[in-house]
What we know:
Layout: H1 10-20, H2 22-41, H3 50-81, H4 85-98, H5 106-147, H6 173-184, H7 190-196, H8 201-207, H9 210-221, H10 234-240, E1 248-259, E2 271-282, E3 287-293, H11 297-300, E4 315-322, E5 325-332, E6 353-366, E7 369-385, E8 391-395, E9 406-410
Antiparallel strand pairs: 1-2, 1-9, 2-3, 3-4, 4-5, 5-6, 6-7, 7-8, 7-9
Amino acid sequence: MASNELIVPVTDVIEEEDNENPSLEVELATFRRKWKDEIADGSYTPPLGGKQNIKNKEEEEQHRIEQEAKYLYLQGANAEKNGDLYKAIWYYRQAIQLVPDIECKIDDYVGNTVKLKTSSAQREARGSNDYEEEDDDIEDIVQGLHSLTISKLETHCQPNFTQTSTHISALPVEILVYIIQWVVSNQLDMRSLEQMAMVCRGFYVCARDPEIWKMSCISMWGVNCQLTKGYGSWREMFIGRPHLKTNGVYISKASYIRHGEQSLDTFYRPWHTVEYYRYIRAFPDGELQMITSPDSPYSVIPKLKTKSSKLAGIMQGHYRMHGDKVFAVFQKFDYTDKSVRRYRRNKNQVSETELTFHVELTVQDIGQRAQGKLTWDQYTCHTHYRSTGLTSTSDFELDMNKYPPFYFSRVKSYTATSDGPLVAPTSVKSA
């Protein structure tokens, strides 16, 4: 079947297009000539293709996996060091699954970690230097406060806010010192004095008044007390010199095992553990109380607040200090009600013997608590017979089980109120 279409040769079409765009051949020739010149000079750098980008991404991914494997391996080493073997095996397994030869590549990671630790240590050292500078500033402040005296104070405090009523700063310094004497009171509550010193700078200076601490020392050790070379101030002497605390009670707990009565069927015989307490209450004026009781401290301690306590079996006396030794003399008083005697013939009966107990104790520190412990050194009973005038002496065997040491316990109610201000005594208290 014949066709009427006209067939044009391809070469003719190309010639026609070349003829239509003669500048395209000129540009192509120019590009080829420049390309050849760059290759001949060696300055040609081929652009990064897709294969190069893929290679870089693979290296980054491999580096990330290797770092993760090293981290897991070190976590396993730490777990193994702490004794957690199951967790260590799990970490090792995870690390080896990521990089089989991770153990050979761990050295550089550890080296970098050491460098990081070194840099952090340097930063901490710089921080410690900052702390040392702060400590130096605090020491300067403390030295400045120590240099202040009451005579240098223009005013002991200032109101922080506007006051509608009279502020305590309107009081003279002498009145504030007298108030501080009531805070210390005749019970020598030095703990409240130290808390008052933390209010402000003026209160701090007034609480460090040497006269207050001197009167406290004289109240504790008597009028013959002198400031020795071993202490820089009266305050240091009161804190450092051994003495009995008066704002609480020294408590000793003892126990023993007692045989019980045998049962009727004779199969068993019970044993009983008996517990009892000894209490020592010291007063600043040299008086002392001691009682042995099976009652718990919760029921006995409130009754020892004053000297007029009339507990059954209580012993009252005096003590004196010599170094860290406490020498005390007690007498037992019978506070039974004589009005309820059953027989009249026993109403005026007088005991033929008089018992006097001599105790020697040692004041010791326990941890950071100064004067918090009393240990037994000697315990003697002197029996005086009124009919013959003779006196016999018997020493108690100081077994640690029967005579354990005393431990101090502060009682808040003893210093909750003040009976009188701090006043230096005029009589000799201790030798």
